[in-house]
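Subject: Acyltransferase family protein structure
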Amino acid sequence: MTKPRLYFLDWIRIFAFFVLIFYHTGMYYVTWDWHVKSPYASDAIEPLMILSSPWRLGLLFMISGVATAFMLQKLRVGALLKQRSWRLLVPLIFGMFVIVPPQSYFEVVEKVAYHGSYAEFMRLYVSSYHGFCRGADCLRMPTWNHLWFVAYLWAYTMIGGLIVWLLGARFQRLSDALGRLLSGWRIIVLPVIVLAVARCTLADRFPTTHALVDDWYSHAQYFFLFALGALLAMQTGFWARVDALRWTSLGLWLCSWALIVCYWSIPEALATPEVLQWKPVMRAIYCLCQWAPILTVCGFGHRHLNFDSAKRRYLTEAVFPVYILHQTLIVSMAHWMKPIKLAPDIEGTFLIVLTFGISFGVFEVVRRIGVLRPLFGLASPASAALARAPASGQPLQELAAER
């Protein structure tokens, strides 16, 4: 029997991807390394950035796992893998060679004072030139930059589909067993334990690279959450329990966030052995700050956003093209605005407004031109019309898209 569509997860996905525009605009103004940097960069807004950075991508992978499970209600595994490969790999390749290169171009202009034209840069880009370096830090090209999420999602979908095929009917039994297990305190504690084990054993050995082949700590987090979403998709009791825990989860999220900000803000001069011995505990708290927000967002979403509307159907289609475009727009406009020397709050507002406006403007063009639709991950017009139909039994259509 087909399960009812979980509309609240559509809304959460939409909001989570749109948060990326604010987050990546913020990356221009913080001290963390990024493609281009504002002359006003400081640590002022870093606590606000940390409010979403530990969990946002994990949430998206979990929702993608849920969506994959729903699609398996309608498609055989082979058909699903074929569809996902088309919808993910085509925009990924297009993005790597058309959308992403301006980010790398402006990065080498600012970081290594490259003076060549964009055409000259593109000749180096497509030839896998690795000579743009600052010390041992070299820019690898071609690159997928923010589209790494698409590559990882494709890989997880392929692996997940193979596992479902191998398990057969045992997949549903495993789903039911997990649904029964995750109740009460175990909803919070058990996933945090899994995330904490991964962080304590892999984070130092395998720092995040987003290069797919050597990013084992990231895989340990994200594939776990993707698989968790797939297994829990049909467990309606789980979502109701998450709803009931939403205020508890919110309190745990905010407390863990405050502790992380305080710990990371300790000056180096005060980082004594007595302070550093708390590192394993803080890693566990960080993992709580990964899982508690996911529970919070899903809990409040289940309570308040489990409804359909024309806006949901429009935004569900729009959000992937907006995701593909947004970071290139932010990087390019930030570089071009730099000589104007606007105040950072005004400049940041303009970046956000223009990124939303231009992204949706491009989407309005792309959605009307059939040949452009697959380049931005959109289904054919006939399939899109079917997906927008508000049938209560329709499976949740995955929007394949992170950072």
